[in-house]
Amino acid sequence: MDVAIGLPNAVPGTTGAQLVEWARRAEARGFSSLGTIDRIVYDNYEPLIALAAAAAVTERIGLCTSVLLGPLRTNPTELAKEALSLHALSGGRFTLGIGLGGRDDDYEASGVELAGRGRRLDAMLERIEEVWSGGEIGPSIEGAPALVAGGHADASFTRAARFAAGWIAASSGPEQYEEGARKAKAAWVEAGRQEEPRKMALAYFSLGDDAEADARANLADYYAWLGEQIAEFIVSAAARDAESVRQTLAAYEAAGCDELILFPASSDPTQVDLLADAAGL
Predict the structure, then answer these.
(1) How confident is the model at residue 225 (pLDDT cuts 50, 70, 90)?
(2) Where would a tag sit more exposed on the chain, N or C end, judged by fewer CB atoms within 10 A?
């Protein structure tokens, strides 16, 4: 299983200097990819811009939106061009992870209806495929970005099998991930696809002397919209020491995960080294 790390693009107060130093360290320590989380009404950096900054200071590490909230980008042709641009500028390292999102305030602020977002995302992906395969909208690069689709509703697995190279799970824990991975494989079979889907997932970590405080200050705030019970589950599930990091990695690998992206609760770049040490990188 590949071990990836999330950029702290959704940790409030993260500076540009912290973000690019994080990217440099992640590449130096051997992580497979850098991920990003997407929100509109929050103190976070836009994912594609954050990854472009990371691309400028790295050469090898993969770049992945995990996930971008597709229906909030209302011009699919422009999004396809933005993705191609990042893919070209990074030397072919970009994976477009895309999903729906469900926050009312993000949709309201964007002037987009929440209802019907799944249908609109399907239409967006059709158009993105057309742009990437058409060759008329650049920049020119051999090969398009990889595409992975997120979500846990039945329609999400159908969508992933129709359009994507793989499926990505939210931070729901290894048991729910394993159930989703089975559904993803079944959707691939039903769609008549011969290859295996690439299966990805998100989890959280918070290491060092302030691990507990950082997890509660940032993860609980970010997920407060889901309600206290779910926010507390996410906070409590975050790996807080080397042993829990190893347990998290082992659980997801046993569940069939191909790449796990571990997201931070702090923007301090020393977290990259702490996680790398814990993961044995």
Answers:
(1) confident
(2) C
